[in-house]
Amino acid sequence: MQSLNSSVRTPVSLRDLVLDRLPHLRLNSPFLIQLRHWEYWPFAVVYFPVFLYHIWLSIKARSFFFFSASNPSIETGGLLGESKVAILDRIDAEFKPKTVFVPGSAQANTVASLLNEHGLAFPLIAKPNVGERGWRVEKIERWESLINYIQSNPGDFLIQKYVDEPLELGVFYYRLPGESQGVISSIVQKEFLSVRGNGRNCIEELIMQNERAILQLPALIQQYGPQLHEIPAAGKTITLVHIGNHSKGTKFLNANHLITPQLARVFDQISQPIDGFYYGRFDLRCRSVADLYSGKHIRVLELNGAGAEPAHIYQPGFSIWKAWGVLLHHWQVLYTISRENHRRGVPYMTLSEAMSSWKQIQKNKE
């Protein structure tokens, strides 16, 4: 029988044909990974029930911006546009790393002088003074990287001593106005994005075996380039990202088992001297759980106000229904605190003030 084609071709299955033409249908494709795990869903989708509840609470409070009264000493209550350095300045020096504010107009020689003046050395953390969800937060290892950050950064930013402690947590704390004791309602433990060598696969191949790492692959290629082709020794752990942010691949783990009355008293001690603070999440690093309970060697990297989340809900496998329940409960607490502060004379933010904050945020991102 005469062959219709003189070349020999390897048979291709219908499945392979479909996947070649629709790569987003591969089981390890970013599309399906994000679809299977709600923790990666768009913010507007996850928060839709919260938006509806916010409307109801706003009607009761007669202000869409009632949340701004939750933390009177923080701009907008800490929901948007707040200054990180202004908040850190209110925290006792015992509980925070050395931090330097750098104006957006500063030149490299000015930054060098600031580092020398405050005794800061590499590695460092650089982050925008106004920003959220890990936007432009970077670990800086050398002077050349800092120069690049200075030149590419459009607004004011912070340079912070890198805290190399093994335990990174987000502790959600709130206290009713007039009360001396508060509540810890959520603790998230952060597990940095990493891969473990097997002596056979290169780092890029190990990344392709890790769903969380796959989502970060474009950024990792840009950051590490040819280093991803190296083969780590069996058992060696390679930390790919040193920033404890969910958007950068950090795994958030439910650590609510750490909540005790003793720990609540520790955070009473930390928070009560912060004038006008009642509701938010402390993002911190410390040496051990024992040190956490004793209040020793705690370094608060950031304090987030009304916009903070009880981040333990992002534990892989945590039910979206339970997550919505947790979020709605915290918004009820936010409403209660805001209304009480308003009753005590704290005004709500006006529409013009909200628009001004929004415009400033967009300007900082340009």
Tell me the number of strands.
11
Distance between the termini: 68 Å
As residue ranges, the low-confidence spans are: 1-19
Structural class: alpha+beta
The whole-angstrom Rg is 24 Å
Total count of helical runs of at least 4 residues: 14
What profile does the largest beta sheet have?
5 strands, antiparallel
Kindly state the percentage of residues in helix. 25-40%
Q: What is the string of SSEs from the N terminus onward?
A: HHHHHEHEEHEEEEHHHEEHEHEHH
User: How are strands sequenced across the largest beta sheet?
Assistant: 9-6-5-10-11
On the 0 to 100 scale, the average pLDDT is 89
Morphology = globular
SS strand fraction: 15-25%
Feature tags:
366 residues, alpha+beta, five-stranded antiparallel sheet, 11 strands, 36% helix, globular
How would you characterize the overall build of this protein?
The protein is α+β, with helices and mostly antiparallel strands. It contains 14 helices and 11 strands. A hairpin with an 8-residue loop joins strand 5 (167-174) and strand 6 (183-191). Helix 4 (48-61) packs parallel to helix 13 (320-343). It is globular. The termini are far apart.
